[in-house]
């Protein structure tokens, strides 16, 4: 690819463009004359656009599916006073084949502003600093076995940290909070840290971490809390002489971290470490939700509208002078 990559917000009628986008809709249709064409919607982090494929439909239809990141070249036209992209070439884009040409998933889906590689190293240091050998081994085994997913997974589908690498950002924030405040209370610091790092581990199975996050069948039918408890149980079985009381406490932290029955929590926190994990989870989640509400608001004035998680006007941050 020799041309510069063009984000959707820069599309202008008459431009020939190329770039990387997310195909969020794909429909095979017929023209009035009975000819096949592809009707698409493409999106990146700057906007979205309707797109059409009129030529070589059968061949190009085989190259990608809805939900794929795609590499595209085409011409921007106008249809009913709106921009429309007529695609001449399209293919599925993967990091393996297209990173050399500038493809980064962060171009097509919202991603953490923090470097996932640095976050991973920070989490590894926290794990290696755990003094309890059993908990350190448990957390390390689970994290190493799931590294590829953990690096890109969102923390939720449509709530807090619902972006690429959001899971890592959330647990790292929580772990750093736990490290600072655990000494203020009479708690087992390693148990709190282990609970923080594993409390949402079931979301690796509950949520499909492709470009468009969605719940899996197992996520809808069972949910991340029970899935997470099962992951802990399976991992504990592989660690020789893992204390049964410690395993039970870890399971309880997983089962109680939501903190309320009405939030689908099977148990309420029943000892200090479980309560602290729950409180730190709520703290970081709500701070992120407020950050999202403030960043997404387009209302003029000092306050946001009420259409946010908190359902109240939020005071905006002072603009830098």
From TrEMBL:
<dbReference type="InterPro" id="IPR004365">
    <property type="entry name" value="NA-bd_OB_tRNA"/>
</dbReference>
<keyword id="KW-0378">Hydrolase</keyword>
<dbReference type="InterPro" id="IPR006675">
    <property type="entry name" value="HDIG_dom"/>
</dbReference>
<protein>
    <recommendedName>
        <fullName>HD domain-containing protein</fullName>
    </recommendedName>
</protein>
<dbReference type="InterPro" id="IPR006674">
    <property type="entry name" value="HD_domain"/>
</dbReference>
<dbReference type="InterPro" id="IPR012340">
    <property type="entry name" value="NA-bd_OB-fold"/>
</dbReference>
<dbReference type="GO" id="GO:0003676">
    <property type="term" value="F:nucleic acid binding"/>
</dbReference>
<dbReference type="Pfam" id="PF01966">
    <property type="entry name" value="HD"/>
</dbReference>
<dbReference type="GO" id="GO:0031125">
    <property type="term" value="P:rRNA 3'-end processing"/>
</dbReference>
<feature type="domain" description="HD">
    <location>
        <begin position="167"/>
        <end position="286"/>
    </location>
</feature>
<dbReference type="InterPro" id="IPR003607">
    <property type="entry name" value="HD/PDEase_dom"/>
</dbReference>
<dbReference type="GO" id="GO:0016787">
    <property type="term" value="F:hydrolase activity"/>
</dbReference>
<dbReference type="Pfam" id="PF01336">
    <property type="entry name" value="tRNA_anti-codon"/>
</dbReference>
<dbReference type="InterPro" id="IPR050798">
    <property type="entry name" value="YhaM_exoribonuc/phosphodiest"/>
</dbReference>
């Amino acid at each position: 690819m020799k041309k510069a990559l063009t984000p959707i917000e820069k599309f202008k009628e008459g431009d020939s463009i190329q770039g990387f986008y997310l195909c969020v809709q794909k429909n095979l249709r017929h023209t009035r004359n009975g000819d096949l064409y592809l009707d698409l919607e493409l999106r990146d982090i700057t906007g979205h656009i309707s797109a059409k494929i009129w030529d070589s439909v059968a061949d190009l239809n085989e190259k990608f599916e809805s939900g794929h990141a795609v590499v595209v070249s085409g011409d921007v036209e106008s249809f009913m006073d709106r921009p429309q992209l007529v695609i001449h070439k399209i293919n599925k884009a993967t990091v393996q084949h297209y990173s050399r040409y500038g493809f980064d998933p962060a171009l097509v889906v919202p991603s953490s502003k923090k470097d996932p590689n640095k976050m991973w190293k920070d989490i590894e240091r926290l794990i290696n600093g755990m003094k309890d050998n059993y908990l350190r081994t448990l957390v390390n085994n689970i994290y190493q076995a799931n590294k590829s997913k953990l690096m890109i997974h969102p923390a939720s589908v449509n709530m807090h940290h619902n972006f690429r690498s959001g899971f890592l950002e959330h647990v790292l924030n929580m772990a750093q909070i736990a490290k600072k405040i655990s000494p203020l209370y009479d708690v087992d610091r390693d148990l709190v840290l282990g609970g923080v790092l594993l409390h949402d581990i079931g979301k690796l199975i509950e949520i499909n971490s492709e470009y468009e996050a969605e719940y899996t069948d197992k996520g809808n039918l069972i949910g991340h809390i029970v899935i997470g408890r099962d992951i802990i149980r399976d991992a504990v079985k592989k660690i020789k002489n893992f204390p049964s009381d410690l395993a039970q406490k870890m399971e309880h932290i997983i089962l109680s971290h939501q903190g309320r029955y009405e939030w689908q929590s099977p148990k309420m926190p029943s000892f200090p470490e479980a309560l602290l994990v729950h409180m730190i989870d709520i703290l970081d989640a709500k701070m992120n939700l407020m950050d999202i509400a403030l960043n997404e608001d387009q209302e003029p004035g000092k306050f946001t509208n009420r259409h946010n998680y908190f359902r109240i006007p939020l005071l905006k941050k002072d603009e830098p002078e």
